[in-house]
Amino acid sequence: MATPKRYWLVKTEPEAYSIQDLANEPKKTTCWDGVRNYQARNFMRDDMKKGDLVLVYHSNANPPAVVGIAKVVRESYPDHTAWDPDDKHYDPKSTAENPRWFMVDLKLQKIFKHPLALPELRGQKPLAEMELLRKGSRLSVQPVRGKEFTCIEKLANG
DNA sequence: GCCAACGTTGGC
DNA sequence: GCCAACGTTGGC
Question: What is the dotted CATH code of the domain comprising A7-156?
Fold first, then answer.
């Protein structure tokens, strides 16, 4: 039995790394490095599986919006940027013997023609319990329910 | 730029 | 283990 596909959402600040940057990568694929939150890490390390689909969200943007879909193409492995003293996300407590932070590889699937801005998502019944829309939610890697993913796909297709 | 909501750190 | 102080996130 194949395990059912799961759905996720990852946040990125477009000024730092946008979905267009992902589109410009060789093979439209990148390692999702720099996550330094334990809950988010656990999702990536333990639960994100090859083939899972991932909504890409632009935070701190005008407007903040879900902008496309990516796919997990490599499951978790240590985030080497934690070992680089010159990296913004350097963490001396993470070592090669005992890595603290992990990442997955994501490949771009689709950029929405019309980004789905936050106000458009609020008020959608199927999204009532969505983590992204919860007040005060800061989780940068979060699970998405099947019905939520479907709803967003529908909205994106007009 | 403001600030509320969070997560982490560290003294005790 | 508590919790105040601090740093960060992220919408507005």
Answer: 3.10.590.10
Over residues A110-121, the pLDDT tens digits come to: 999 999 999 999
HEC readout, chain A: CCCCCCEEEEEECCCCCCHHHHHHCHHHEEECCCCCCHHHHHHHHHHCCCCCEEEEEECCCCCCEEEEEEEEEEEEEECHHHHCCCCCCCCCCCCCCCCCCEEEEEEEEEEEEEEEEHHHHCCCHHHCCCHHHCCCCCCCEEEECHHHHHHHHHHHCC
Check whether residue A17 has its CB closer than 7 Å to nucleic acid strand C: no
Quickly give A28 CA vs B4 C1' distance in Å: 37
Which bases of chain C come closer than 7 Å to a protein CB? 8-12
- Separation between Cα atoms, residue A16 and residue A46, nearest integer Å: 26
Sequence ranges of the domains in chain A: 7-156
A63: preceding bond cis by omega (within 30 degrees): yes
Per-residue pLDDT tens over the stretch A34-72: 999 999 999 999 999 999 999 999 999 999 999 999 999
